[in-house]
Structures are given as structure tokens and as C-alpha cells.
Amino acid sequence: MRESEIAENIKKYSDIDSCPVRNVVARFSGKWSMLVLCLLSENAATRFSAIGKAVPDISPKVLTETLRSLEAAGLINRHQYGGIPPRVEYSLTDLGRSLMPHINGLIGWAAEHFDAITSR
After folding, report:
1. What is the spatial distance between Cα 118 and Cα 120, in angstroms, rounded to a whole number?
2. Which residue of 13, 48, 50, 76 pairs with 70 in a disulfide if CB–CB is 3.0 to 4.6 A?
3. With 0-12 CB in 10 A as exposed, 13-18 as middle and 19+ as buried, what is 43?
4. Cis ω on the peptide bond leading into residue 85 (within 30° of 0)?
5. Phi-psi map region of 84: left, alpha, beta (phi>0 left; psi -120 to 50 alpha)
């Protein structure tokens, strides 16, 4: 590869405003985000407490932050029902569902290479 090609490839990641990794992928690539998205893709509307039980090593505060971030990115819906106590359910948006085939591809790769990665 020529130096000019390398410089051009590097440039696309250094442009803060138009870099897809910085501006799109970073919104769902947090430690818990993909796990929450996978959980919601396999279940219809899911309550906060059920997500917390499915991912027992996430604190309620971090789960709340993760859900808010995914909602702000347009990947999940939050629906609050009236009543006492109030009930809140989360589900994927159409945008979130369109992301899942790509995440599932990554999950397949991770499963295939799990031993090679974790044994290092």
C-alpha cells in the first residue's frame, strides 16, 4: 500500500464530524449495549427488572444509563404504563431491528473464535 493510500485511510477516522465509528458505532458499542440489544431482540417488550435479572452483573444505575443511551440513539423504545407501581417496558425500534443482523454476524464470529480469543 502506498503512503498516500494509508494517509487517506487514516483520514476517514480522524474527521470527528463524519467518522461512522465515532458517531454511529460508538452509540451501541458500550460494554452492555450489545448484550441489552440482543436480549431485546429475542424478547418482545421487556421490563427493566427482567433485563436486570438476565444481566445480573450490571448495576441498576449502569443499566438505566445504557437504556437511556440506546433510546437516545433511536435503537430502543421505552413505554411507561400507568398504575402503581408504574411499569416500564423496552423494545427494539425498527432501526434497532435493522441493526441486529449485523450484531448477530459479530456474535457468530465471536462464538466461532471464542476459544482462540479467550485463551490468550
Report:
1. 6
2. 76
3. middle
4. yes
5. beta
